[in-house]
Amino acid sequence: MIPVYRKAVTGILAATFALAVTGSAVAPALAADPGVTDTEIVLGGTHPYSGPASAYGNIGKGIGAYFSYVNDRGGVNGRKIKYIDKDDGYSPPQAVQIVHQLVEQDKVFAIFDTLGTAVNTAIRPYLNQNGVPHMFVATGASTWGKDYQKFPWTIGWQPDYQAEAALYAQDILQNHPKAKIGVLYQNDDYGEDYNAGLKRGLGKHQEMIVKMASYETTDPNVSSQVSTLKAAGCDTFMIFATPKFAIQSMVAAAQQSWHPTTYLNNVSAAVPFMNAASKAGGPAAVAGVISTIYLKDPANHARYAGDAGMKFYNEIMAKYLPTADKDDGNYLYGVSIGYTMVDVLKRAGKDLTRKKVMDIATNLVEKDNPLAYPGVVIRTSPTFRYPITQMITARWLATDWSPTGLLVDTRSMTMAENK
Amino acid sequence: MARAIRVGIAVVVIAILPAIVPSFVVFDFIYVAAYAIAILGLIILTGMNGQISLGHGAFMALGGYVVAVLAHNLGWPYWVGVPLAALASGAFGLVIGAIALRLAGVYLALATFSLAVATPSFLKHYKSITGGFGGLSLDAVKAPAGLPTSGQQWLYYVAWAIAGAAFLASALIVRGKFGRALRALRDNPIAAISFGVNPYSYKTLAFGWSAVLSGIAGAFLAMTTAYVSPDTFTFALSITLLIGAVLGGMMTFWGALVGAIVIEFLPLVAQQVNAGAPSVVYGVTLILMMLFVPDGIVGGLQRLTRRLVRRVPSPTAFEPSVPAAASMAVDQPTRE
Q1: Is any Cβ of chain A less than 8 angstroms from the Cβ of B283?
Q2: Considering only CA atoms, which of B199, B162, B172 is closest in space to residue B184?
Q3: For the domain A161-293, what is the CATH code?
Q4: What is the pLDDT of residues A103-148, one digit of tens each?
Q5: ipTM for the complex shown
Q6: Which candidate among A205, A285, B224, B264 keeps its CA 20 to 30 Å from the CA of A124?
Q7: How far off is chain A from B94, nearest CA to CA, in Å?
Q8: Class of the A25-159+300-388 domain?
């Protein structure tokens, strides 16, 4: 059989050489920007419709609903938006493959709202190399704002986790200067960003952190981590966790008769989660918990009953996603970020180029996003690319988040950090 | 000589593919090469030797991270990194293989599964080396100066050349005594041992070789994506590899090629069929294939051609096709 293999190998080598010599495959020069015709703008995106983070897939559906709404009203400057949204399973290699396909086959104008830190880190070099806008990525890591010089075609949208945590640190220093802090965090980039922000916010008072406990997303529950924090004598409880684990930790604390001052990250603060924790652990489990808000909460029917933005959201959901649970904040996130995207495309005008769209996205002042918390302005500059920096702290009072104090802008804090 | 023709056709198709398909499909086929190498290892280990591994994603992770760490932290070139990835992964495979000797069947499957589950946490923990959760970004592979190909085409040909070498080396290794011993240990260990086959060395070596292949595959996965992170090597990857091996066909090397194409493209096709529930389409496809071609696509094709061409009664799915198929791939060339 050896000769056959030898033939095969010779064949491979010959063919390789032949093609290597004749093949011409350098990326084609981009004369006119792809993805824009007289009637259409093609955008591409990926979301985890399967896999461990599939709950976030609803963001993509919310975006699709909003784009349908816009298209039914004539589109953007006469062009309809075609959004090609695919499942990446939260896997970086899969996302890279899909993005290659979106750029090279579907010839998208821009990539919009790809989700997850690892996924976006993986596709960022390729998109920047090819000058494809990589816009409003759905992750709160600080790198999107910080590393713009190296990756000028990439921009984030939501507040970065570090800024949110730094805000909690400020609140602690002001209102609980003698706090003994215990931190529960998810053992990944998400939890790590929160920890970094907390430490940064505490500055020279970092010794206030008495104990840190981590969990893996594969853990069944976090009650042992909670009892570790309690045993360490902590009286202030930072929950840097995704919804399932956040609910568990509030319930576990109540069950262990531990009643610290609790700070809960924004990701897990939607009203249904609070109600779930209250049901399982009693009202004491959630009473007085502190969190932050930057978008409106669709499950908060009482507060937003007469709100025009919420009416707009409900209308879109009823028409384009009638069977979806519109209380799920992921849909609202999708509609809200879709609004910013359409806003940018509108401002770019009829004569649409990739460069122009990036210029507008990095010189943006959007005051009228209907689903941002009242007063939140989405604002960027070429050298400061953190679109949302405003948040308000709020306290849970029995059935609702009650804002405490004023809207805080973490902009100057982040600027100082980046210097 | 039928096999020579098939190999020849495969080589020609692979060689001319970049000239006829769009560049993103070429890109997909680099992943196919990587998966084919990894699945080949599983076919030798599981198909030929009967050791079930649900943890080969861990060896891919090791290979991928060896290349990535050497390139990212030390600036070493890929042509140094890939052989070292193969060596490191192989050494680790020998260690795990030695432990695996004490376990069989579902116990081995579970033990290797725990390896796959632990890998992401392990990678996160040693963040000074692995970059932690954020992973390591790599430079895209570039073609050597003077060659008129894109980096992607260059990587494609290198990946498939290495895949070809892996198939050839594996065929040479498992033909003859070594392969017979592996199969004998799978089918009837007591008889094999009483004929003087040392189960410890053969089983450990099979594990080690399959780990070498997985390490190389992981290295190419890393270079192609130009990025590694713990999310790249979740336990789902290990399961996907086994799915590829089973769907392709465990009993012949062709199964690796077919299985790799299936796991690369089935998720993409499933999305086109139904964008709302790709995993349902994926799952239903798997169930149907297990019902109708339990010996894998290649096994099914073999039965089909046998029925059509030779007009001999088709053997039932499982037993008879095993020795027949196994012989096809590696041993007893006279049957062809």
Answers
A1: no
A2: B199
A3: 3.40.50.2300
A4: 999 999 999 999 988 899 999 999 999 999 999 999 988 889 999 9
A5: 0.76
A6: B264
A7: 28
A8: alpha beta
